[in-house]
Amino acid sequence: MAAVLAVVLTACSGDLLTSGEEQETPAPSLSSSPIPAPSTRAPQQPSLDRYYSQDVDWKGCGDGHECATVQVPLDYAEPAGETIDLDLLRVPAEGGKAVGSLVVNPGGPGVPGTRYAADATSYFGTEIRQVFDIVGFDPRGVGGSTPIDCVSDEQLDAFVAMDPDPDTAVEERASDAAVAALGRGCVENSGDLAGHISTVEAARDIDVIRALLGDRRLSYFGASYGTFLGATYADLFPQRVGRMVLDGAIDPSLSSTEMSLVQAKGFETALRAYVGACVDRGGCFLGDSVDAGTARIRKFLDDVERSPLDGADGRRLEIGNAVLGIWAPLYNQGYWPLLDSALRSAFAGDGALLLRLSDAYTSRTGDGYTDNSLEALFAVNCLDHDDAIPTAQVAPRIPEFERASPTFGKVFAYGLAGCAQWPVPGEQPDGPIDAAGAAPILVVGTSRDPATPLEWAEALAEQLDSGVLVRRDGDGHTGYNAGNPCVDDAVESYLVSGTVPESDVSC
After folding, report:
1. Would you say 472 and 499 are in contact if contact means Cβ atoms under 8 Å apart?
2. Is the dihedral of CA 434, 493, 242, 109 positive or negative?
3. Are 284 and 292 in contact (CB under 8 A)?
4. Residue 3 contacts residue 412 (beta carbons within 8 Å)
5. CB count, 10 Å around CB of 64?
6. Is 24's pLDDT higher than 80?
7. Strand 218-223's sheet: what is its strand order?
8. pLDDT tens-digit readout, 231-264
9. Most exposed residue of 158, 183, 225, 311, measured as fewest CB within 10 angstroms of its CB?
10. Tens-digit pLDDT profile for residues 275-321
């Protein structure tokens, strides 16, 4: 597994196996009025009219859902050129009459949004589902939206299984070659698409979707990477922002090194919380203290690197799989018992359950990968950042990363080189996003979130001119619908009624 996966995989984790005066923003409405032009910060070109005014043919696609495909330009600089398709899925409002659409994105980058919307009853409260059509879309290059294709399932298996923190020059060269081969495959199999699935382009697609849904302003819920996508939209089209919630936020002002250090600390904090819960129960199989427990896990990883375990489906549990298998349950406190079982079995020599947890993290089943989320993850992130360093320059940075995370520090350090061999040049984000002139934007952060640490949410809320922070004290990735009524009330009151907290909220 190339280490870049550690740095930027911020997908919203799914099923691992199988006070004062209220401020109001106008309620979204399905207006029949003409769609106004975008703000002057992102002028709509007349040549884009055909995309904004295309007919959308919604058809039933099971379970009361409606599906459609719309077109957007491959390259917004050449709108008369090649087009690509975007898959949409709409879950009609349960109340029978929607006040508008809530566009949702679960993160990744690379996770299909249609699947997120289809499972709306699992992710969104009744009040939201009563008044909004929940609309998910597969971002360009993802899922059913002209998907990027890079390598075979067998090549992806080998890629994920690789040592994420190479110990020798031979392993470093193998890691570089694997990333280069993945990127080369994207270009060879997907052509120009490999250079046109950036977050900025996906954000522009959202504005086309907004217009085609008939909403003058965008109501949006983004989780994890979906917060970066939503914040990018808000910066491009601030006057188009309606009610927006960004949960498990990413700080767009950080360099890759800064992001990696914070995320390394976040995963270490989450691991220590997991081990601490085990110790507090008494008789913990990991050890009698948090330090002893994390050391036991680190020793286990070192042992697997030397001697992979028997896994499942004729496959072995390699070191890359073992790391991901441990990370996956840290996204949701409810999955900690699964990690208990997986580690107990693995300590006894059976790596099957830990391999299945790794597979869940990368959308793999016994029959292969169910989507292209892993390929899209690399393709999008390497387009969005241009500050990768050569693998040979990683070693001097390792001590700093190991201070942040004694268990996973080297993995995150080598992630800095993950896009150095990518064949399509990337662009570094412009820095802080302020979205000046946008309606209030609710930013949610969780204190022990492994993938998107609380300090990122705090930073994004501070950067946004209209940001309002909701802090959740808890474990797991993202804060809404995670068992905290205070968070749920703040999010639902804003989306449904437009009620904006007078100040930041601590839950």
Report:
1. no
2. positive
3. no
4. yes
5. 9
6. no
7. 59-60, 66-73, 83-91, 132-137, 100-105, 218-223, 241-247, 441-448, 467-475, 505-506
8. 999 999 999 999 999 999 999 999 889 999 999 9
9. 158
10. 999 999 999 999 999 999 999 999 999 999 999 999 988 899 999 99
DSSP-assigned letter for residue 367: T
Place of tokens 């799914």: 14
Tokens representing 343 are 């580690």
Please report where in the chains the tokens 């800095």 appear, as a residue.
416
Closest by CA to 133, choosing from 107, 106, 97, 88, is: 97
Is the per-residue pLDDT at 5 higher than 70? no
Phi and psi at residue 328, in whole multiples of 5°? Answer: -55, -50
Cβ atoms of 24 and 273 closer than 8 Å: no
**94 phi/psi in degrees, rounded to 5:** -70, -20
Helix, strand, coil % over all residues of the chain, rounded to 5: 45, 15, 40
Q: What is the pLDDT of residue 25?
A: 30
Query: Who's near 344: CB < 8 A, 6+ residues apart?
Result: 285
Distance CA 180, CA 175 (A): 9
Global pTM value: 0.91
Catalytic residues: 224, 449, 477
- The tokens describing 226, both together, are 């979906």
Q: How many whole angstroms separate alpha carbon 337 and alpha carbon 332?
A: 10
- DSSP label at 448? E
